[in-house]
Amino acid sequence: MPNPSPSPVVVGVTGTSAGLAAVRLAAREAVSRGRELRIVHAFTWSLPRLDQHYDRARRTASQVVDAAVATAQRSTPGVRVQGQLVDGPADRLLVRLSRTAELLVLGDDGLATLPWLPSGSVLVQTVARAWCPVLVSRGPRPQAGPILAAVDGSRCSLLGLRQAAEEGARRNVGVVVAHVVERPGPAAEAAGREILARSVEAVPELVDYRVRLLAGAPAATLVRASGRARVTVLGPRGEHDAGLLGSVARAVLRQAAGPTLFAHGSSVPAPRTPVARPDPSPALAP
After folding, report:
1. pLDDT at residue 37 is higher than 90
2. pLDDT tens across 242-259, in order?
3. CB under 8 Å to 171, separation ≥6 — which residues?
4. Interatomic CA distance for residues 139 and 104, integer angstroms
5. How would you class 272 by CB atoms within 10 Å of its CB: exposed for 0-12, middle for 13-18, buried for 19 or more?
6. Where is 72: in which H helix or E strand?
7. What is the C-alpha separation between 200 and 52, in angstroms, rounded?
8. Using CA atoms, how far apart are residues 28 and 211, in angstroms rounded to an integer?
C-alpha cells in the first residue's frame, strides 16, 4: 500500500444517491492510495442567519455529512475519514480543495437525463478548473476491465495518458490507448497511428498497454468504448477546444458507462527521443 500523505482524497456530497455512490468509490480510492478520505458538503444560505429556517437547514446539511461518513465506514472498513460542513458555493469550495488533494471524486447526479450540461453547473466548473484529477462516479461499482485512455495529440491528453499509466500500475491492469478517426481513410488512419505512437513514446511510465484506432464520431465512439473499461481517462479539453470543457469531454462526462477520470496537474510529459518499438499496427475498429 502507498505511504500515507497529507494529500487526501476529497469527495463532495449533496445528499443524493449518486453522492453516496461517489462516497463509496472515493472510500475505495482512499484506501488503495493510502490516503485519508475527506467528505465535504457546501452549505449556502442567502437569508439572514436569524431567519427561522436557518438552524433547521444547517442541521439537515450536517446530517448529509454524517450519513456520508457512515456510508464510507460501512462500505470500506479501515478507511480513515473525516466529514466537514463548509460555508460557501460548492464549485469554489471544490476547486480550492483540489489544490491540495490527491484526487477529487464527484457523483454524476443524474447527468444521463440532461440533454446538455450548463456551463455554470458545479460539475462542469469543477471538472474544468480543478487542480487535481477529478473522478466522476457512474453506476454502483466500476466493472472489471482495462483503463481506457483517449488521446488526440494535445498536451491535456498526454497528461491523461500519464495518469492512466499510473492508474493501471496501481490497479495492476492494462491500459488501452485509443484515438478516434472521424473520417476513415488512408491519410487519416496514418495520422491516427502517428498520434498513438507519439503519445505512447511521450509517456515512459506506460508499460502494460495496447493501442486501438477507433472509427466514428469521437464523443459517441468513446462513450461506447467506455462500456468495456474500468475507468475512462481523458483531458478536459482537446487539441482545438478553447472553452471550459471540450465537446468530447462534455459528452463523455454526461454519457460514459462507467467512472471517468478527467486529467489535471502541473506535470505534463516532456517530449523525449523516440525509441524503437515493435509496430503494434492497430486495426481500425468501429
Report:
1. yes
2. 677 888 998 899 889 899
3. 32, 147, 230
4. 17
5. exposed
6. helix 54-75
7. 60
8. 28
